[in-house]
Amino acid sequence: MGPAPLPERQLKRRSSGEAAALYIRKMIFDGYLRPGARVHQDDVAQALGVSRIPVREALVALEQQGWVTIEPNRGAFVAAFDERSVHDHYELYGLVYGFAAKKALDRSDGVLGEKLGQLADDYERTDDAAEAQRVALAFHAALIEAAGSPRIDVVLRALSALVPGDFYELVPDAKVLQRVGFRAIADACRRRDGDAAADEYSRMMLGVASEVVRLFRRRGLFDTSAG
């Protein structure tokens, strides 16, 4: 039923529920499960070698994230995606990270801009997709850590990644957008201009949203039955 087994590096350090959620998202993303299709818990459990319990946990989390809908006594079904929801998802990312940037500058000791600048340099220098993803995550994490707000962490955890797998291999043009965006954010933080940093985050995430929409269109992931 499903795609090829997930690479070990994607499953490493994940709980059974997290692995099941990633697997189901990948089935949707790879076209094995279309909008409206039922997610068979036994098939997922068998594919991953786990019980139904972590699969049920995964489905509850995926419903909260908008990937599936759970109907009492019927099961879980793949939710329909549309272009607007993808744009909204990344716009929310931009707003949350922009909020974090403002809080980080209010609460940090002045070295944040230099740290982000170094990470922006590292990002520009690498041509490796895996290394680019590592540096991008480090950039975001440095800002979140400086903000010192557990509530921001909670909100970001609720915004699961829409592209499972190797993001920069699937969305290569996002790297160009983020190269410019990370540099602009770092420069704004050096100037301790929180409003500018927030604006640059929003601009960057909206650009990434457009690239993800193109990817989803190519893969036929949008529900076109209504139109």
How would you describe the overall organization of this protein?
It is a single chain. The chain is mainly α. The protein has 2 domains: 8-78, Orthogonal Bundle (Arc Repressor Mutant, subunit A); 83-218, Up-down Bundle (Four Helix Bundle (Hemerythrin (Met), subunit A)). It has 11 helices and 3 strands, in the order ααβααββααααααα. It has helices at residues 8-11, 16-29, 41-48, 52-64, 83-107, 112-125, 129-147, 150-158, 167-170, 173-190, 194-218; strands at residues 38-39, 68-71, 75-78. The chain has a 3-stranded antiparallel beta sheet with strand order 1-3-2. A hairpin with a 3-residue loop joins strand 2 (68-71) and strand 3. Helix 3 (41-48) crosses helix 4, helix 5 runs antiparallel to helix 11 (194-218) and helix 10 runs antiparallel to helix 11 (194-218). The longest helix is centred in the middle third of the chain and has 25 residues, at 83-107. Mean pLDDT is 89; it is low at 6-13.
